[in-house]
């Protein structure tokens, strides 16, 4: 297993699991598609620093999710452009909070051996035992799916598709600045935009 000093979430990151380091401090066991590694950062620190790395703040991401109706333990959009959305399994302040990448969750099943736990199956059939009942886990996965859809619907109208057809030419206006330092569209005596002449 590899050791890293700092870690930034990437598309292949599947899970951030809290673990006890040899000095007693809390670190993170990171599960990726093709490897595992451990870092001294806590799972929450990794999520926070990853949001910053991709141009936002954790508090901003959390606030937006809450404004959209996801009040309790909201999913976090770490990077929309890369499709990275993580869901916490418990309150972020909890020492045992596990974070999972929504896009890597494939299936889940109730554990028959240990009450109150499930097995989550991630990409490449990676199996992880998690301390959560199946109904709350299902709700968290579905809530994150709904959140991703809402974000996608907000962005879709503004995405430019390269169809090969030139975009409609926008008319240029005669925009000027006045003595107060604000801007206006310069009109002629008849009230017509001079740029249209």
Query: Which H/E pattern describes the elements?
Result: EEEEHHEEEEEEHEE
> Largest sheet, described in full?
7 strands, mixed
Helix content: 10-25%
* Low-confidence runs: none
InterPro entries: ComK (IPR010461)
Organism: Sporolactobacillus kofuensis
Pfam families: ComK
Protein name: Competence protein ComK
Describe this structure in words.
22% of the residues lie in helices and 28% in strands. The termini are far apart. It has a seven-stranded mixed sheet with strand order 1-4-3-2-7-6-5, sandwiched between helices. A three-stranded antiparallel sheet has the order 8-9-10, with no helix packed on it. A two-stranded antiparallel ribbon has the order 11-12. The chain contains three helices and twelve strands; from the N terminus they run E-E-E-E-H-H-E-E-E-E-E-E-H-E-E. It has one domain (2-158). The longest helix has 22 residues, at 134-155. The chain is α+β, with helices and mostly antiparallel strands and 197 residues long. It has helices at 43-53, 58-67, 134-155, and strands at 2-4, 13-20, 26-32, 36-39, 76-79, 84-88, 99-101, 105-110, 118-122, 127-130, 175-177, 183-185. The mean pLDDT is 90. It holds the Pfam family ComK. It comes from Sporolactobacillus kofuensis.
